[in-house]
Design brief:
This protein is mainly alpha-helical. It has two domains: about 1-50; about 55-200, Arc Repressor Mutant, subunit A. It contains nine helices and three strands; from the N terminus they run αααβααββαααα. It has helices spanning about 1-10, 15-50, 60-70, 75-80, 85-100, 120-140, 145-165, 185-190, 195-200, and strands at about 75, 100-105, 115-120. It has a three-stranded antiparallel sheet with strand order 1-3-2. β2 and β3 (about 115-120) form a beta hairpin. α2 crosses α6 (about 120-140) and α4 packs across α5. The longest helix has about 35 residues, at about 15-50. It is globular, with a radius of gyration of 21 Å. Residues about 205-210 have low confidence and may be disordered.
Length: about 210
Amino acid sequence: MAELSARESLLGEGRGEDRRDRQDLFNLLRYAHIFSAVVQEILELKLLREVSPHPLSLSQFHLLKLIALNGQHQVGQVADFLGVSAPAASKNIDKLERLGLVAREPCKGDRRAILLASSRKGRQLVQRYEDLKTKRLSPILDSFSTDELRQLTRLLERFSMTLIDAEEAGEGLCFRCSAYFDQDCPVTHFHDDCPYLRVRPSKEEPVTGKEA
């Protein structure tokens, strides 16, 4: 009864259509939180523990994945992407470097700049993670039709973009998607800009360094 009372409190005392709308909102937020937690706990943390022999935090792995999938970055760019200070980013980089997963290299065009590059070991770790994720997701995706998956994707995108568009400060938000960066990201269509694109190395600007 206590649980029911708490739920009733959240739904309020409205009746009829207003109460149904509140119930729909309650269910939407409930499953949105569940979906977010499932992605992080099952598709990220659990799989990371299975493939990594190192006790990496999710933030450290996101950093490694960012560099492994998108090429070399400067420390400041990584800090901006993670939404942390440069010293905090450096601390995570130090650990990844000690583990042999990333390497610091001088920029060929600017010797004062230090670039971060993933090592072969680091890229192999990210690849094992991606392979395992695909393997685990395959039987789950098989339980949905292609049309259902496409509809789910469209609804997730539409809901996310509507929230972003309604947020007045949305122009400065970075949603940490760059590990799976797409040039056609809809965020750029809403605000004509992408926080990650502002710090992402241009493919037209060659960034060289030896392979670690």
